[in-house]
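Weekly puzzle thread! Below is a chain. First person to post its structure in token form gets bragging rights.
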Amino acid sequence: MVTLGGLRGERPPTDLAGFLAFVRLLPRPDIYNVIRHAIPMGEVVGFGFTDSRRPRYERLRRFPERYVILGDALCSFNPVYGEGMSVAALEALAPRQCLAESASLEHLWQRLRPHLAGIVNPAWRLSVQSDLAYPGVVGPRRILAGAANWYLTKVHQAASTDRTVCRTFFDVANLLVPPTALVHPRIVARVARHAYAGDRPAATPQRQ
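Winning reply:
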């Protein structure tokens, strides 16, 4: 499955020829080289998405008894990052954990809130922070957001050639490990090594 995304008015074409032409313009040719001779299993399908939403239900002072909120109703993510289904799957397990601690349905939401927050918060920060790296995206920017996005850009660049960085990034993106895995000293060292090598000027050939 190949998914293309556009930002700030840029929309990938939904006809096959335009779709392939758009893929061909990506910075790296890998995806295009894989799919240009492939036989599509169906039509290209478009999906318009305008914003990420997170109603803060956990802040309500009163909440209906025996009622819970999960999935996109609790937090709707930018689908480009592929977090929504992973978060929803983890959220679906949270009531089981709460009911294992106490089978009573009374005050279930109050018991469930911290479990859901622990699932949503890391994914929400990662998604929103990535969105806010683009000029024109509306939303509050934290003081260190610029530095974090700069580092994440270097992670992406290193991941294109470093298997360890790439695997760690995808583990974070798929919610298998927390985002702090990207700032583990071993990963930081590999990212810094890649950035240093990439920023060094090319050697000038010497005449013999």
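Puzzle host: Confirmed. Bonus trivia for everyone else. Residues 57-131 form one domain.
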